[in-house]
Amino acid sequence: MIKDKHIFPLALCTIILAVIGLIGGYSLSQKNINSIEAVSSNDAIYMEKIFDKEKLLEINIEIDEKQWEELLENAMDEQYVAANLTINGETVSSVGIRAKGNSSLSMVASDSTTDRFSFKIKFDEYIKGQSFYGLDKMVLNNGIGDATYMKEYLAYDMYNSMGIATPGFAFAKVSVNDEVWGVYLAVETLEESFIERNYGSLDGNLYKVESDKLGAGGNKQGGQMGQMPPGGKNGIQRPSNQDNETMQGNMQPPGGMPDNLNNEAMEGNMQPSEDMPDNPNNQAMQGDMAPPTEMQGGLGADKGSSSGTNLVYKDDELSSYSGIFDNTIFKKTTDADKQKIVDMMKNLSEGTNLEDYLDVDEVLRYFAINTFIVNLDSYASNMKHNFYLYEENGKVQILPWDYNLAFAGYGSLNATQAINFPIDTPVTDSMENSPLIAKLLEVEPYKEQYHNYLNKLVTEYVENGKYEVTIQKVNELISEAVKEDPTAFYSYEEYQTAVAELIQFGKDRATSIKAQLSGEQPSESYGSIATTVHLNNLGSMGGGKGGFNNQPPQDLSKNGPGRENRTRPNEMNKLEKASLTIEEKGLLLVAGITLVGGSLLILCFKRRKYRS
């Protein structure tokens, strides 16, 4: 028997253990809400939880009505507001959410008929260390300019298939306070979680290469697009048979261009040639930047050269490369670390010791894909943006980002030019201003290696059927959700047409590249492979076809969908409930029983002492 003098200490210890158990049980119960456990690069649980590209995510943003209004009304400020985020039934409380984007942000913000912004989610904005199974940030991309919804998905799938470090991505059906908002692409941000998952540590340094933001938050106007002509949504002129010359974009025809006596708007920068498909719809000139041949400059001209984003070496001053170093991702990065990027650029300009400063093989794989998909909203144009540089131990890689305008959705190429985009001069800027690819292609073994990767894309991704099968699978996955998308930039019929065009684009592009590789077609200038593709049907900068839908999206008021008569919770604490797992319930039950038992022991001790 336990002696009386031992009962009280024993009971006290029991109660202490019970309290610890209760605290532990509560902490575990919060795991579904505030996961703060670090996830090693080998685990990457969030890749299964969020970025399963074979499934359609269900994401619900639960937010105070006034805060949601403020977010939409002040989107250009890019300020975080608090919300609870439920991903496939698991809730994360008090995350930060804000609008994101550059020119796309400006376009939506200036359009009174839509609030379909892209969003950035920061899990630890309000709770330090919070993550979702190790993920610190992600974005929800609205797919502006992409009638297919899947250009970015397909691009990342291709990068992933070629072994490039690629962000996680998956389609998501996004709701706001349980009301459907739209179909988005959820994408892992290229920050701490991404680097640790792909490289196993945070030893390296990461830079988002970007010139002055194009109409981004804070009213920064550097590099912003010129004034849009009136007419369509966002002020973008729609094609019209009544106008003599209707141009899609933000530039006027330069002097010296042939008169358009037949009142035909042009898609591209030249008169149709015999090998080009007829233009029965009087398609407007597509794009918002100068064509790649005679009209260099225009939108974003010299942006790369002025801020270093073209990676042309100037001098050893870090201030000469503000477009790189002003966008340093990690706070730990030092000036000595930044100097390694400058050293890389210097050796690149001289063509010396390239493999000591560049992961040459990775860079060649990156450009093989970028060239195949004719992604000009990138290093391949004079904008020189939408990519990251990752440096570790003095060696640099280029990482992919932002592909809603891939497949010739950015720029003024016509369909024939896009299909025949030259593989050995794969930029619309000058090669001299694009040393990251130009200097590598000057080395014959590297050029051959690059050609091998292009051939691999043709044979192993397109000709074997993977390209078309992937598109068909994505269509099966999202088509019903797209059909009911209340904020869609395009109609469902336009989406269906675009998907078919995307399949044909890949097939024709593969045919052209194969001919360029064999020497049957030129590889440093535009060839003549015929195509039936209509680029406008795929979507382009400004929403495609000169704007977004001809009619406002379903249930879309001036203030945006659901911004009136929307029922939202009044108290944020109503949103912080999470179901407990069996293990968590068991632990809490044991702790509760132990607490009761300890209390009974103390009561028994007091009664004996009183009786004695």
Overview of the structural elements:
- It is built from 18 helices and 10 strands.
- Among the domains are: 4-31 and 582-611; 45-213 and 560-575, no CATH class.
- It starts with a helix and ends with a helix.
- Helix 11 packs across helix 14 (444-463), helix 14 crosses helix 16 (492-518) and helix 15 runs antiparallel to helix 16.
- Strand 6 (169-176) and strand 7 (179-188) form a beta hairpin.
- By secondary structure, the chain is an alpha+beta fold.
Number of helical segments with 4 or more residues? 18
Label the structural class.
alpha+beta
Distance between the termini: 18 Å
Oligomeric state of the chains present here: single chain
Shape designation: globular
Q: SSE string, helix = H, strand = E?
A: HHEHEEHEEHEEHEHHHHHEEHHHHHHH
Helix content: 25-40%
Largest sheet: 7 strands, mixed, barrel
Cα Rg: 28 Å
Residue fraction in strands? 5-15%
- What is the residue-averaged pLDDT? 79
Unreliable parts: 25-42, 214-301, 544-585
Tell me how many strands there are: 10
Order of strands side by side in the largest beta sheet?
A: 1-2-3-4-5-7-6
Mind sketching the topology for me?
Layout lengths: L3 H26 L15 H5 L7 E6 L2 H9 L7 E7 L2 E11 L2 H7 L8 E5 L14 E5 L9 H11 L7 E8 L2 E10 L3 H8 L5 E5 L93 H5 L14 H4 L9 H16 L3 H4 L2 H13 L14 E6 L2 E6 L14 H5 L15 H7 L2 H20 L2 H18 L8 H27 L16 H4 L43 H30 L1
Parallel strand pairs: 1-6
Antiparallel strand pairs: 1-2, 2-3, 3-4, 4-5, 5-7, 6-7, 8-9, 9-10
Helix pairs in contact: 1-18, 11-14, 14-16, 15-16
